[in-house]
Every structure is written in C-alpha cells, then in structure tokens.
C-alpha cells in the first residue's frame, strides 16, 4: 500500500487553534446537476476502532456530492464487511456497484497519528483489488483525514485530483426580517463541504474581497476603520489583524503574491483607480498602472510573474494582463459587452471570470488560444475562484432574492448549491494544504 506523506496528513486544522473564532452555521450542499453516467461506488461502513466521526459516511458524502460518482446507499449494500476475503462479488454486481471501498481504523502503533485508516478499493467485476492506502489520523482531525481518503479514492477512480480537504472563506451579511440593509457582516471560514464553519470577524460595516495567502495562514480583506475603507490582514492562528496604512482615497481588492511578501491592491486617486504593489515588510508602495479610468481586481499568476486585472480603459470593463518585470500590458478579453473578476487557474493556463452578455455568467478563458467557454447559468454570477485542483469553480450568485454560494466543474457538467444563513457573497477558495 502507498504510505501517504506524513507531513501532509498530520496537519491539525488551523481552525481549531484560531483565537477568538466562533462556530458559524454550516453550509448545506445540494447537487443540482451531475453526470448522467456517474461511476457507481459503494463505501462500506469501516471496521476497527469506533470513533466519534463516521469517517466512511464523510467519504460517502464527499464522493456522492461530487456529481461524478454515485454512491450506493447503505440500505442497498448487500454486505457489511471490512474483510476482503468475505466479499461476495456476484451480490455486489447485482447491486450495480462497480467499485467497493473497504476500510479499517486501527491503532497507530507508533506509525504517526493516533490511528491509521486503511482503505482498499476493489473492482467488483474484475474481482480484484485495484488500490490501497494508509492514512495517519489525529483524534482531533478525523474529518480532515476522511477528506484525504476521498481525494485518494476520487483520483484513483477518475484520474482527477480531489479538493475535498480544502477550505473556503466567504462573507455572510445578516439582514433582519423586513429590512433591506444588513445589520451585521461575518467573515467565515469553513471546510470545503461546508462543515467546521468558523466566524473569524463580526462587524456592523461591510466586509469585502477576502483573499488567502499562499500558505493558507492569513486572509486579506477590505472593511472600514474610522469611516475609511481599509485593507486588513488577519492571521488565522492568532486571530490578530492589522490595518494597512491608507493612502488618499479608496483602498481595495487586495491579493497576496505567491511568496506572501507583497500585496497587490487598487488605490483610488480622484476619479481614477490604479494598481499598486505593497511590500508587506517595509510598507513601501510601487505603482503599477497609470490610467484615466478604473483598474481593479488584481490577481497574481501562480508563478508571480504576471498580474491580471479588470480595467475600463477601453470604455467597458475588460480583462488585461501585465508582465510585472517589464510593465507591459495586453488586453485578453474581447468577447461580450464586458468581462470582469478574473482569477488564474492553478496551472496559470486559463482564467475564470464573469462574462457579461445579456446577464453575468461564469466563463473560462484559455489564455493561449483565446477561446471562451460559458459554464455559469447566470443571470447574476459573481466572484469566481478556482479550487486547488483546477476542476471546480466556487462563486456567488443571486437566486430567489438571496445571494448563495455555488460550485461548477470546469466542464460545466456538475453543479452544486451551498445553502446557509444570510446573504452569502465574496467567496475565496484556500490554496492546497502543504
């Protein structure tokens, strides 16, 4: 069996250590569109040590919500066994389970962690094992270990990396019944499945544009201090936050450089808004653009060599890309009435953005070929962001008078809705865990 790298799997969630964080309402995920030919897989309840979290059910839920795998309900499973020798192949074939996942939770016995989760995947038609994994498990991190198991099964069966162990940040605006304006704003961080939600900031002022540092330890966002729009950076371990020094005008749309040492941001100057780089150590600012208009929504490329942003310098909002070494800028979108909110894919080869052509819909742009594929349904999609695996896009949209979170696969085949309290907006997907 493959031994998963211990450094990755022994991580204890940062959420558990955040000072001042409070529990938030978990999001409930609904699959609104999946693949017709989703792969049938059975996750059999695990044997071994009894734990307070049903890890098999967590994995079942993860894979079932993927839209690409159809899990077999426990009541329809012909066997409850953790012993491969006891598998009745014909019974599983009749239950139409192409693959069977068996698991055992065992004491760690000095191998790292408190326990060890042993997973095995079997092909019911070929009647053989196709893969096996050993995952170290910490007592206080059971769900995370189960999400790692989901990633491994997903990639083994579909050839696609999973993103089940990820984290997301978003803003929830609490609007009292009968009122129009929000009375409270909450900055929330949760697991990718909507669980373990933590409110890390409450404010009676709007909270905007949360963005993660590359190591997942900090969030930059925009809020207000002394009635001025201000960029803050908050450390998620300690809960401490610091306000960046304001220049004249509005400061907004922050984005961390990949090395975490710089922040790109938009700064207004009179009627114009331009982009700057701030060195987070010294506080020094370097101006990047000089335009009569509005340049905003910067996003660093994964290699830190380029920056995409939204600008109305052509008369309508379009997406531009800058080479940071030379300062040269090129326009990368021309289709539709407008394009905005660009974010690089993890490999830097494409962008996800909001495309306006009658409505506002999520779209993917191939940077090399220029092809644009619309994958959102609109009409009011906003704030898209890639998952670390590059296959899922998280975004906000208004439906039924409420702002909610949604995900869509990069091919548009799988869609999910993430339902929670309040008006939910400004989502951001955390980078992959180390």
Instruction: Give me the number of helical elements.
Output: 4
Give the mean pLDDT: 89
Strand tally, please? 33
The CATH architecture term of the largest domain is 6 Propeller
For the biggest sheet, the summary is: 7 strands, mixed
Q: Can you give the helix content as a percent range?
A: under 10%
What is the fold-level CATH name, i.e. the topology of the largest domain? Neuraminidase
The CATH superfamily title of the largest domain: TolB, C-terminal domain
Strand residues, percent: over 45%
The end-to-end distance, rounded to whole angstroms, is 22 Å
The gyration radius over C-alpha positions equals 23 Å
What class, by secondary structure content? mainly beta
How would you characterize this protein structure?
The protein has helices at residues 6-9, 55-65, 89-94, 142-158; strands at residues 2-3, 22-23, 28-33, 39-43, 47-48, 69-71, 99-107, 115-123, 128-137, 167-174, 184-191, 198-203, 208-212, 218-225, 228-235, 241-243, 251-256, 262-269, 272-279, 285-287, 295-300, 306-311, 318-323, 329-331, 338-344, 350-356, 360-366, 372-374, 381-386, 392-399, 402-409, 415-419, 423-429. It is elongated, with a radius of gyration of 23 Å. β29 and β30 form a beta hairpin. It folds into two domains: 37-158, TolB, N-terminal domain (Rossmann fold), CATH 3.40.50; 167-429, 6 Propeller (Neuraminidase). α2 packs across α4 (142-158). It has four helices and 33 strands.
């Amino acid at each position: 069996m493959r031994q998963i790298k211990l450094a990755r799997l022994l991580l204890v969630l940062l959420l558990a250590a955040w000072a001042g964080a409070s529990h938030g309402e978990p999001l409930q995920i609904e699959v609104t569109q999946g693949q017709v030919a989703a792969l049938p897989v059975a996750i059999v309840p695990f044997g071994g040590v009894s734990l307070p979290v049903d890890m098999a059910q967590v994995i079942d839920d993860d894979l079932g919500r993927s839209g690409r795998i159809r899990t077999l309900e426990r009541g329809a499973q012909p066997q409850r066994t953790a012993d491969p020798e006891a598998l009745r192949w014909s019974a599983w074939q009749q239950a139409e389970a192409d693959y069977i996942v068996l698991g055992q939770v065992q004491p760690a016995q000095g191998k790292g962690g408190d326990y060890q989760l042993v997973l095995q995947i079997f092909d019911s038609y070929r009647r053989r094992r196709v893969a096996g994994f050993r995952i170290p498990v910490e007592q206080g991190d059971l769900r995370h270990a189960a999400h790692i198991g989901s990633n491994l099964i997903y990639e083994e069966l579909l050839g696609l990396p999973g993103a089940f162990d990820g984290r997301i940040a978003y803003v929830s605006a609490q609007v009292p019944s009968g009122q129009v304006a929000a009375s409270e704003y909450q900055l929330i961080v949760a697991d990718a499945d909507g669980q373990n939600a933590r409110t890390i900031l409450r404010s009676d002022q709007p909270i905007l544009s949360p963005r993660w540092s590359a190591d997942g330890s900090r969030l930059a966002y925009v809020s207000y201090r002394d009635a001025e729009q201000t960029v803050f950076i908050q450390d998620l371990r300690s809960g401490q936050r610091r306000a960046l020094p304001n220049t004249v005008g509005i400061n907004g749309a922050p984005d961390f450089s990949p090395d975490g040492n710089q922040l790109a941001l938009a700064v207004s100057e009179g009627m114009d808004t331009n982009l700057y780089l701030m060195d987070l150590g010294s506080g020094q600012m370097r101006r990047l653009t000089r335009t009569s208009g509005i340049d905003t929504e910067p996003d660093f490329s994964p290699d830190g060599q380029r920056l995409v942003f939204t600008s109305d310098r052509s008369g309508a909002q379009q997406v531009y890309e800058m080479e940071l070494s030379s300062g040269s800028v090129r326009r990368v979108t021309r289709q539709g009435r407008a394009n905005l909110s660009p974010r690089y894919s993890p490999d830097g080869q494409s962008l996800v953005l909001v495309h306006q052509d009658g409505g506002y819909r999520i779209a993917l742009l191939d940077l090399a070929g220029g092809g644009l594929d619309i994958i959102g349904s609109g009409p009011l999609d906003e704030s898209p962001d890639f998952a670390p695996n590059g296959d899922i896009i998280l975004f906000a949209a208004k439906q039924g008078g409420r702002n909610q979170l949604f995900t869509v696969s990069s091919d548009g085949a799988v869609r999910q809705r993430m339902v929670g309290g309040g008006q939910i907006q400004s989502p951001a997907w955390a980078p992959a865990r180390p």
